[in-house]
Amino acid sequence: MATRPEPRSDPQDDLSLPGWVYHDAEFFEAEKAAFLRKAPQVVCHVSEISQPGDWRKLDYLGESIIVIRGDDGTVRAFHNVCRHRGSRLVDGEGGCDRVLTCPYHGWSYGRDGALKGVPHREDYPVLDTHGLGLKPVPLEEWQGFYFVTLQEGAPSVAEMMAPYAEEIAPYRFAQMEPIGRVTLRPRRLNWKTIADNYSDALHIPVGHPGLTRLFGKSYGIEAGAHVDKMWGDLRDTPSANPSERAYQQFLPDAAHLPDSHKRKWIYFKLFPNVAFDIYPDQVDFMQFLPVSATETVIREISYALPDDRREMKAARYLNWRINRQVNAEDTELIARVQAGMESDAYEPGPLGRSEVCLRSFARRLREELPQARLPHPPGRND
Question: Which of 162, 227, 261, 269 is the most exposed place for a label (fewest CB within 10 A)?
């Protein structure tokens, strides 16, 4: 009896992506069309828009989105664009308004997005006020967090995170509140340079001595269909670093968590550009918001359950200090990578079998955009 031959593996599965995809403007436009516009982006938490008129804003891929609670209690998302002459309606990260009034000509919109007021109304005898409300944007609420997409077509956050729903349930995300404020950090980097680093476990013992002191060799890593996961267990051996040692000491018992997670750090990255870190004391969201082929804004904010214990306040401050150092280390490391990717001397390097997330990401990108298999941009023959 004839047997079916084993499928041949793709030789590019063992290679990283070519350098040109990290700085080519046309490839960036292709990414936007293929998946970046479909990617869910976190805007805010339910606690930040608890009252009618409360709104938060996100700027993404040249678009500006408002998420606002209406008088009926419903949360909606709209383009931050006046239907008259296209002016942005609101500035800043958030606020609370009875109506959204355009600063250009004074057109105003209700909390439900409906057009409410038009100065010089007599100038528009056939104005269709019902058809000129703010344009809606797809919105998803997941675990108390609101996500928007510019274009439908990607799995929901709930679908992407379904394999981990049971694990994250005890953290009670929906009951959290923001700690601190939204931070925006512009970087001269391709968004993938940042995303790759977030899923790269091999650089941790080399580039992050603090994390190595805290977690030793306990780091784990896995790649799912839509989500990468990394984790580590906090060591009991006191760190030589004062901030790290104090965090180990002051981190209080989180009674709502199972024993297995009371001293565990977990990292999730949703394809393509949203990540969040779950700690016993808080959760940090981070987005790699692409601006151009070589510009990205890193958007960050932290949330936590209300807890007035002095030990918890100390742990959260120390967590911030530790992660500021980690971010500073990563900033230098990935700037080096971006510079190398822009060199004509770079060719796709080998990926080890343990680099499961990087292999998964490269494979996904080649599936989405087959031109990523080429050694040079399409049309270049040398």
Answer: 162
Query: Cα–Cα distance between 295 and 190 in angstroms, integer?
Result: 6
Question: Which domain does 309 fall in, by range?
Answer: 155-361
| Contact between 102 and 89 (Cβ < 8 Å) | yes
Number of domains in the chain: 2
Is 11 within the bounds of a domain?
no
pTM for this predicted structure: 0.94
User: Is residue 347 in a domain?
Assistant: yes
Within 13 Å and on the Cβ side, how many CA atoms surround 162? 7
The residue with tokens 């997941």 is 142
Can you give the pLDDT at residue 297?
A: 98
Q: Where is the domain boundary, 66, 99, 131?
A: 131
Based on the domain organization, do 88 and 161 belong to the same domain? no
Based on the fold, state whether residues 65 and 190 are members of the same structural domain.
no
pLDDT at 57: 98
Residue 150's nearest CA partner among 14, 40, 307 is 40
Which residues have C-beta within 8 Å of that of residue 248, sequence separation ≥ 6? 214, 234, 235, 236, 238, 239
Do 308 and 258 fall into the same domain?
Answer: yes
Positions in the chain whose pLDDT score sits under 50: 1-7
